[in-house]
């Protein structure tokens, strides 16, 4: 197996941190991008505990200048676009500035990094761009409508880019986890407490309760990270990888369920 230089964004916790560690354990040069020295120390401590070496590089994916510098300096063989966050709330209720920040982080920033990385990959005749999407890149439901819309857009870009760069020896891969044990959704719920959404209070409460009740179904971040390693190392990666029991079930059922039926079930569960 050839050792690759792999850059993973948003790597201070959850899937990103697990991915950086698993890649290092698999023998690759693993570089974790983080937004602060404090987060770099978290990564370094986790790497020491695991007995592996993970480099860190400061990067805010929303900053075009930092993105350009990072790709020029690091020149990855593989770019794992993992940085992101979720918005929890009705489409009507989430403030526009939060939506703009979401799209900058989940869509525009990752695509910018990929565009900057492609020329070097093309010159080498080999490369991989891996986008961390979600089951919500395939389906959408309240109260994660904005998050789903950003992931849908990301997957649309990935599909087009995959065909555009295939002749250059570059693969574009989408990872679609279902629920994952990470702080992302909890952080989104705390942020939503500041939204004015009295019309949807009952729905949000039911959605929060549902997340707590199904916590046992959430995948371990290391399980997602191992799928990323597989996508890096396999000769011919799949275009999409569904990860987790819930993702496998819902991802395969949603195309065959009538929309009216899935809508009615969701509305009943959430009191809409």
Tell me about this structure.
This protein has 272 residues and is an alpha/beta fold. The chain has a single domain (5-270), classed as Rossmann fold (3-Layer(aba) Sandwich). It is 53% helix and 14% strand. It has helices at 14-25, 37-50, 64-74, 96-124, 145-165, 184-192, 201-213, 221-233, 245-253, 259-270, and strands spanning 5-8, 29-34, 54-58, 78-81, 127-132, 170-177, 240-243. A 7-stranded parallel sheet has the order 3-2-1-4-5-6-7, with helices on both faces. Helix 1 (14-25) links the parallel strand 1 and strand 2. The chain starts with a strand and ends with a helix.
CATH architecture: 3-Layer(aba) Sandwich
Helix content: 40-55%
Oligomer: single chain
Low-confidence stretches: none
Radius of gyration from the CA trace? Answer: 18 Å
What is the domain tally? 1
Succession of helices and strands? EHEHEHEHEHEHHHEHH
Shape descriptor reads globular
What proportion of the residues form beta strands (DSSP E)? 5-15%
Break the fold down into its secondary structure elements and pairings.
Blueprint: E1 5-8, H1 14-25, E2 29-34, H2 37-50, E3 54-58, H3 64-74, E4 78-81, H4 96-124, E5 127-132, H5 145-165, E6 170-177, H6 184-192, H7 201-213, H8 221-233, E7 240-243, H9 245-253, H10 259-270
Parallel strand pairs: 1-2, 1-4, 2-3, 4-5, 5-6, 6-7
Helix pairs in contact: 1-8, 3-4, 4-5
């Amino acid at each position: 197996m050839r050792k690759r230089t792999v850059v993973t964004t948003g790597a201070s916790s959850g899937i990103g941190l697990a991915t950086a560690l698993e890649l290092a354990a698999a023998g690759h040069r693993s570089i974790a991008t983080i937004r602060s020295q404090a987060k770099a120390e978290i990564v370094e401590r986790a790497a020491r505990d695991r007995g592996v070496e993970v480099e860190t590089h400061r990067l805010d994916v929303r900053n075009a200048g930092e993105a350009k510098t990072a790709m020029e300096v690091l020149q990855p063989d593989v770019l794992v676009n993992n940085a992101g966050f979720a918005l929890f709330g009705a489409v009507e209720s989430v403030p526009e500035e939060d939506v703009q920040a979401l799209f900058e982080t989940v869509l525009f920033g990752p695509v910018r990094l990929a565009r900057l990385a492609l020329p070097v990959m093309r010159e080498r005749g080999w490369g991989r761009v891996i986008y961390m999407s979600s089951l919500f890149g395939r389906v959408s439901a309240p109260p994660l409508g904005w998050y789903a819309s950003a992931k849908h857009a990301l997957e649309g870009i990935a599909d087009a880019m995959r065909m555009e760069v295939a002749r250059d020896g570059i693969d574009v891969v989408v990872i679609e986890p279902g629920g994952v044990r990470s702080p992302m959704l909890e952080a989104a719920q705390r942020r939503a407490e500041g939204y004015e959404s009295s019309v949807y209070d009952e729905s949000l409460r039911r959605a929060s309760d549902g997340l707590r009740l199904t916590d046992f179904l959430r995948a371990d971040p290391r399980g997602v990270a191992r799928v990323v390693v597989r996508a890096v190392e396999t000769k011919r990666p799949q275009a999409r990888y569904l990860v987790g029991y819930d993702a496998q079930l819902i991802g395969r059922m949603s195309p065959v369920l009538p929309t009216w039926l899935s809508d009615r079930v969701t509305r009943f569960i959430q009191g809409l």
